[in-house]
Amino acid sequence: MPPTSFLPTRLPAYRLLVLGLVLGLLVLALGPAQSPATAADESAATGSLATSPASTTASAATTISANTGPSSEDSGASHDPAGKTIVYGIPGLTISDIDRVRTPNLYALFSSGSAANLNVRTIGSATCPGSGWLSMGAGARAQAGPPTDPEQEDSKATCPPVSAPSTSDDAVQKTLGSADDVAKTGPRTDASSDEDLAQSYADGTTTATIDDFESIKEPNIDSGYSVDYGMLARLIREQGKAAPSETGPATDEAQLKPCVAAEGPGAAYAAADENGIVANYTDDAAATDCRLDLVDLGSIGSSAWLYDPIPNYSYTVPAFFDREERVAEADKRLGTKLAEARDSATPGSGEPTIIVAGLGDSSGLPQLRAFIASGPGYEPGSLSSASTRTPGLLQLTDIAPGILDQFGISSPSGISFDSTPSDDEPQKRIDDLVSESQKATSIYQHLSTFSLLLDTTFYLLFILCGLLLSRCFLGRRGGATIAPTVHRFLGWVSLAVATLPMSAFLAGLFPWARLPHPGFGLSVSVAVSAALLFGASLLPPWGRTWRGRVAALSLLSFLILSADLITGSHLQGNSLLGYNPIVGGRYYGLGNQGAAIFIVSLFNFLGLAISWLRANGHRRMVFILPLTLGLFAVLVSGNPSWGAKFGGTIATLAGLLVLLALVSRIRLSVFRLALIGLASLAVLLGIAFLDWLREPGARSHFGNFFDQIVTGEALQVVARKLSANLHIMQINPALAIVTPLAIIAILFFLRYLLHFPNIASTSRTGRLTNTWRGRLPQVFADQDIHFGFLAAATGMAVGLVITDSGIAVPSTGAMVLLPYLLALSAEHADEKVTGRWPRRNSQRTILTTAETSAAEPPAAGSSESSPEARKDRT
């Protein structure tokens, strides 16, 4: 009979060697992985140069079959278009607004070009138009001030006014003088100077300045994000090349200058430098000779989203209005601007590239907005980027790098537009994008409801354990008779509860977003998914025992998550426990809550599997199985092309090393636990370094984090993540207290403390924990199950410390781990437990029998009568 102590001191040499090789193998396996964006770029094929008109009012946009990836000189994104590029910003515009009859100009551009849903998240839940324009020009998340009136801080339907720039010579000279004074006394900046403005001056434009630009920038000072104001305009001015405006031989007069013309207050926000200076402001951007035009067409607006009056740009919305009428008006304005661009173009000039973007929200409810690109390099289909890795989805911060890539200019992020051609009819492509947008909106709206459901379910399970397992309840008349029924009831309830978190991911397999009532469809999909998981855990042969049911559910959850990560994270995205594209915290890979389920399911299954292998004499597999499956889990979680989860991979690796150490009979100490943590961190930093060696646009979270370490921004990022954890605890205290409640349940309801011999039975803690009639001590009498529990607890603890919004890791993990343990405790429902608690510091005795109330004493001299065996049984 093998000893049950899990802290032996001897370690076989070959196992130590295997453990030493783990770290090197991980770096070799994970580091050189190629991101999907890079793979897509290398395999992209260029297309033909066939063109076709879009419509009478939108004939400036044409269809040219070419890919926009950066991998080849012949690809669409790497070409240097001869014609203008014009960006029309319409905050509030969505793909669902596009209609063949009501918005003919938008429909024509959509039909001839590429489109995507656009995440416009900046800082805060909803994005004001000024913030959207400011972020687009900087290529980074930024918020436009001035700060909201303190009396209206709780109002999500309030935006600061978008200040129209001033073109008076006095205002411009005053701003330039202030900028020169700062440049002389402070560090060098990239702000505009008189020489720069003179070189970039375009015909038909003037220099303007945004009044009190410091107050507009104020919200970004302590936001944790680095904002390079006017980055798009500055890089085009400094690195751009002039392009011929005609297809024939170019002359000096027929050149498009490397400058950015801004029309409208929002466009001025995008083009302004850090001092609020706009180099080329105009009333008619299409008539200028700049290569890039930014045109503000105003906001769609909403009855709950009001702005200060700004003439000619419709930022003031009446209290009651018809949204369809507003969208039709925006389309009419777009048609007028397209006609002006066509009329302003010189005969034989190159075809322009037309971009229409919903640069911001227009109501208190954040949504995915519209992005359409038509012209050279954009054929009918969908767009994506390396930052989202999702066809038909872009970020607001992708627009500036994508335009720079189109001009052949390198951007700090290295992002480019990736095109996925489609032969579908325009209406079919619209319906597909609308479905994805509706899915994101429904998830965003019901996320808090589902979280509340999980929290409430966990609290009810917590209370049920406290009431039904209490000796006060079971000690009443008839309590001994109903005790087994109570335990089995809690076991079935716990097994059902354990399926809920995973069902949130499986719901993505159903097309619920296309139903007339998406919210109801989502609820039904979650319920059906939970029922399928519950039924799968009951199938024979594993469904005959509680261990088999829990092991099956754990393994199934782990395998589903692994398969999803390998195939593109389709279940993680737009999931109630994954990540939402409206929030924009993550677009691919393993999310925090998914990582919690991933870690708990893995180690819970390994503990049960090792116990079964050891009981059946498979001694080698006891070590081979956790090593193989654990390394596979680390590979899936850490591969930049799959999980791309920096903190989650360290947590998984740390839990794996703890499990291997326990299985290998290594005595754990504080020093060795610290070594495990450092070794895990070293492996992940090595992977991050290898990922950092790639091009900026092909990097994952690993490479970006290593770049932040190199540039010195890592501490700022860590501080922002810690602040996010505190913010989550403030806005969602129900989630934050799940973890301490789980600890209380394990320590007291299930008498886990009594498993340790240094807790005196007659002490206050011993008497308190003995109040509940838990069965977990019998479960943990199996050391292998105990090993799996300790490994899972280690992973969650590490995830709490080093993961973004890490409070979600142990909280979600507890919602799965505690039900698993309660279900396992039902295995001992028919066993009788009698605890006799003698004098203080004396040895306690627990007699456990499965079917008889008394057992014959072991024969004298047998191993069962030895002091060690008696101690193990206790």
Automatic annotation (TrEMBL):
Biased composition (Low complexity): 848-866
Species per Swiss-Prot/TrEMBL record: Brevibacterium antiquum
UniProt-annotated stretches for the region Disordered: 60-80, 137-198, 833-874
Regions that span the bilayer: 447-469, 489-513, 519-539, 551-573, 593-613, 620-638, 644-663, 670-690, 734-754
Key word Transmembrane helix present: yes
Keyword flag Transmembrane helix: yes
Name of protein: Uncharacterized protein
Keywords: Membrane, Transmembrane, Transmembrane helix
